[in-house]
Amino acid sequence: MKEIAEIINGTLHAGTPVEITEYSIDSRSVVDPAHTLFFALKGNNHNAHDYIHTLYADGVRAFVISEFRDSFRQLAEANFIIVPDVLAALQLLAAYHRQQVQAEVIGITGSNGKTVVKEWLYQLLANDYFVYRSPRSYNSQVGVPLSLLGIAPKADIAIIEAGISQRGEMQRLQQMIRPNMGIFTHLGDAHAENFSSQQEKLAEKALLFSSCKWIIGQDGEALDFIKTQVPPTTSFLTWGENHTANVQVKTLNVNSIHREVEVTYQYKTFVLEIPFADIASFENCMNAVCVLLLKQQEPSKITEKVARLSAIAMRLEIKEGINNCTLVNDYYNSDPSSFQLALNTLATQDASKERVVILSDFMDTGKEGSNLYPAIAEMLRQANISLFIGIGQHLSEHRHYFPNNSRFYEDTEQFLRQEERENFKEQVILIKGARVFQFEYIAGFLQKQSHGTILEVDLDAMVHNLNHFRSLTDAHIAVMVKAFSYGSGSREIASLLQYHRVDYLMVAFADEGIELRAAGITIPIAVMNPEREAFDNMIMFNLEPEIYALDILEDFNQALNKHGIKRFPVHVKLNTGMNRSGFDEQDIPRLLDFFRSERSVYIRSLFSHLAGSDESVHDEFTLGQIHLFERMTERIQARFDYKIWRHILNSAGIERFPQYHFDMVRLGIGLHGISAAHANLQPVSSFKTYISSIRDVPEGQSIGYGRRSYTTRPSRIAVIPVGYADGLNRHLSNRIGEVYVKDQRVPIIGNICMDTCMIDVTDTNATIGDEVEIFGKHIPVTELSDKLGTIPYEILTGISFRVKRIYYKE
Ligand SMILES: *Cc1c(COP(=O)(O)O)cnc(C)c1O
Fold it and tell me: Of the CATH numbers 3.90.930.12, 3.90.190.20, 3.90.740.10, 3.60.60.10, which one belongs to the domain with range 318-449?
């Protein structure tokens, strides 16, 4: 700690001695508390200083902080290093560590493809070198230092991604990474918000390369510009079709699954069979191949390795499994840090189910088994895993580190021969294996079969949207998870929101709240339509009612008396113009009368609901509602000696009336990517299916029931297994609705049937099995609601329950 304090220019407040091997910035993902140095960062939404007591209780003894609070004095064994800026301290330590390691550092930047180039380089180099690479896409101001701190002393090569979103960031990254070799992947067309021009963005990115001996990239304007930005002694290796490129590349042949290219470098010509057809893969592959050329690798060897490149799955999927299991499939890297991230995801799943982990050997971690496997066993213990299944020779050899009930198999095939599906019931199962183990067979074995129409829920997009709304407000955040979280799922979404520390969840009915409690949700839950029959359950499960009339208040209070429970929170709703439910201004005296005597309920919050917060035509009315709300709440608050929270804003209100956030806001549709203020939100749900068959139909034929559409030319008509029973509104029939297939839009033709419909794919090269998007990233859900004269809420909540929900995240 003393040494670290010196490196980061901090003041040490010493406790008991500790040895540091791990670094963490996230209190929820500390793996080895006794040996972790925790950096207490302050973000927009969280101040990690608030979690220091909890971390101490978990065994963490070393902290880097920027504010020493009085209460920290109680933590007698803790070591604190006090610095003015914790992020800067983390970056200083990372820069120091990078200077200590021997590895050649390759820095990758560009708008797209960084992670793929990194992973492919790893696939291409790992047999010949000990290669370290940044976990996942850790490429930010926080991600880069954590990546650098992970470089093992023995590593030959370290591949580090650098990503920026604002001016000034690359300089800080460069000072830490100081790459010996740089790769520039691609400059996207998007004119990023925080840069005034493409050129400014490029100049900023080029800063990464100021220390490089070699820079690699595609021959062209971007590289020419980079040449003007770096020291003249820098060498370049460019690839491209023009003779100006150092490595000449010519595409010989492309079919639907691969691309054949001819490469000429230093008078040698050879052919690469890239196992992907698209341009982006070609570019990514060539950037990686240039590194091998600089390393003087033989063409025959390069050809052989390139042919074996495999796709990089950057996501983690959560799916329904057999026998009421939940499967968490992680196809990402197999290394201990990504394993920990997967365990964190497991922790956010249904708490009522047992935890199972199916794990393969880790490949090339550079750690001794006797260090690695006890650490893995400890992670499993901390994550409360009740059953561990290890697959691979290494794990089998080190089985003595794992609990007695663990099961081990030499390979995936042995697992499939010996395990039975009946062995898995009511569990959450993490399936995480290195690619060579082909765990997709295990996932298939444990997966519930269903028809291929799914609602894909992008959890990263949801967190992005949540954080956007958080950045708008200092108030507490309640999230509305009524109606199956607007169709996206209740347990999964609530677990995610709890993990991201929202303050309240709100549901429509008590049943929905009970379901969440059963899934292990412990944060406060309010119920908007409390029914008398549900009062006992609500009290038992700690579900707080919305009170919109005096008789309900009286009855609920009585139910509490029966249970002998005091000080139970309720939320009193005021009517300010919606005219649906709630106390009117003239009801206030009777409400206050009720509280004249000692009661078992207390008012946690006073709230109201806006009728037209998303439309400016109603702004005057909305402000009237808000002012009435202020008047009514002041009158009520004056009669209580405790503070009562106030809240009135829904999503559109949060964006459009920032001065009225009061103590809490209620986020709903905004979480799902719909903004009333054109904010940069991301679509969360994608309604998808696939082509199940295709038929050639001559000109002039009618399609489907009622003969409402005719072919006007010889046509290819595809069938997709989704119909109005799935939530595809029948008013989208006959070319009104469109779907997205193979990078283009095509019309729905004929009347939509109950379970299927037809689309016209004449102008595409679509084939059976191709994915079809009904709405999602390409067709906004608002396009459908506009066509149908309704609101996106109705579309989202109208997706049938028989459509399987699949959750994924990076
Ligand atoms: C549904 C609901 C919200 C959220 O509304 P959005 O428009 O989806 O943000 C807020 N408050 C109450 C009382 C609601 O019923």
Answer: 3.90.190.20
- Which residues, in sequence order, are CB contacts of 38 under 8 Å at separation 6+? 23, 24, 25, 27, 30, 48, 52, 55, 60, 62, 63, 64
Helix residue spans in 277-419 (DSSP H) = 279-294, 299-307, 336-347, 369-382, 393-397, 412-418
Burial class (CB in 10 A: 0-12, 13-18, 19+), 533: exposed
Question: CATH 3.40.1190.10 spans which residues of the chain?
Answer: 104-307
The catalytic residue among 268, 562, 566, 705 is 705
**For all residues of the chain together, what is the average pLDDT?**
93
Specify the pairing of strand 804-809 against strand 454-458: parallel
Minimum CA distance residue for ligand 1 atom 6: 668
Protein residue whose Cα sits closest to atom 4 of ligand 1: 668
- Domain boundaries for CATH 3.90.190.20 within the chain: 318-449
Q: How confident is the model at residue 136 (pLDDT cuts 50, 70, 90)?
A: confident
Q: What is the structure's pLDDT at 625? A: 98
Q: Which CATH number fits domain 2-89: 3.40.1390.10, 3.30.160.100, 1.10.540.10, 3.40.50.800?
A: 3.40.1390.10
For residues 419 and 425, give the distance between their C-alpha atoms in angstroms, rounded to a whole number. Answer: 13
Is 705 a known active-site residue? yes
The pLDDT, as a whole number, for residue 761 is 97
Contact call for residues 481 and 490 (beta carbons, < 8 A): yes
Average the pLDDT over each of 105-119, 189-203, 298-312 and give the range with the smallest value: 189-203
* Residue in 323, 294, 327, 289 with CA at minimum distance from that of residue 309: 289
Pocket test for ligand 1, best of 506, 581, 657, 793 (most atoms within 8 A of CB): 506
Mean pLDDT across the stretch 546-558? Answer: 96
Q: Please give the full DSSP string across 776-803, using - where no structure is assigned.
A: SSSS-HHHHHHHTTS-HHHHHHTS-TTS
What's the confidence (pLDDT) of residue 736? 97
What lines the ligand 1 site, CB under 6 Å?
480, 528, 609, 650-652, 666-670
Mutate to test the pocket of ligand 1, among 465, 486, 649, 650 (most ligand atoms within 8 A of CB): 650
Ligand 1 centroid to Cα of residue 649, in Å, is 8
Ligand 1, residue 508: give the atom nearest the CA. 15
Its CATH class, for the domain covering 104-307, is: alpha beta
Q: What percent of the chain has pLDDT over 90?
A: 79
Is CATH 2.40.37.10 correct for 685-809? yes
Residue 83 CA to ligand 1 centre (angstroms): 43
Catalytically annotated residue among 201, 205, 353, 482: 482
Start-end of CATH 2.40.37.10 domains in the chain: 685-809
What pLDDT digit, counting tens, does each position of 478-512 carry?
A: 999 999 999 999 889 999 999 999 999 999 999 99
Say how many Å lie between the CA of residue 667 and the centre of ligand 1. Answer: 7
Q: Ligand 1: which atom is nearest the Cα of residue 482?
A: 1
**pLDDT score at 191:** 45
CA distance linking residue 322 with residue 328, whole number of Å: 13
CA distance to 163, 188, 203, 567, per residue, from 167 (Å): 11, 17, 10, 52
| Predicted confidence (pLDDT) per residue in 75-113, tens digit | 999 999 999 999 999 999 999 999 999 999 999 999 888
456-672 CATH: 3.20.20.10
- Catalytic: 118? no
Has this prediction a pTM greater than 0.70? yes
Residue nearest to atom 13 of ligand 1 (CA): 609
DSSP 362: P
Q: Where in the chain is the domain with CATH 3.20.20.10?
A: 456-672
Q: Which of 507, 609, 657 has the most ligand 1 atoms within 8 A of CB, as the residue to mutate? A: 609
HSE (CB half, 13 Å, CA atoms) of 307?
10
